[in-house]
Design brief:
This protein has five helices and no strands. The radius of gyration is 17 Å and the shape is globular. By secondary structure, it is mainly α. The longest helix is centred in the first third of the chain and has 32 residues. About 20% of the residues are buried.
Length: about 140
């Protein structure tokens, strides 16, 4: 199911790890820019700065999850996967639920400590997105 296109296997794995890291960093930058502008009262026109990390999200998604078919692997019915793929997705999903729970708790506490106690649309959308990409990220990071 996982498609590997050309090149050295270790180079592909390193590039995939870089793309996953870049993807999460861009996602963090989107939230930092948004909440910095929201809390400091800077003009909303500066929200156009969101275009830069958003473009990074799109490009790194393609490299980390689309080309490698990891997105398809983690979003395919278990009936359509072989035994190895089922075990791989199950293990990644199990880890991702634990990581996601801890991430949510940390974010809630940080937002509460910063006085941003309301979880708004941006943070909810980012958390939903992270819930979908986390299993594929774990596979991308660990698998050859």
């Amino acid at each position: 199911m996982i498609l590997i296109i050309g090149g050295n296997l270790s180079t592909q794995k390193t590039n995939r790890k870089r793309a996953v890291l870049c993807h999460y960093l861009c996602l963090v930058f989107v939230m930092i820019i948004f909440y910095s502008i929201k809390t400091t009262g800077i003009k909303e026109i500066y929200l156009l700065l969101e275009i830069i990390p958003s473009l990074g999200i799109v490009l790194s998604f393609r490299k980390a999850f689309s080309v490698s078919n990891l997105w398809k692997l983690t979003h395919t019915s278990y009936k359509d996967l072989d035994e190895r793929e089922v075990q791989l997705v199950f293990k990644a999903t199990s880890y991702s639920y634990s990581i996601f729970t801890i991430l949510c708790l940390v974010m809630i506490y940080v937002f509460n400590l910063l006085g941003l106690a309301i979880i708004d649309l941006i943070i909810a959308a980012c958390l939903l997105y992270v819930a979908h990409i986390l299993p594929a990220s774990i596979i991308a990071w660990n698998e050859k």
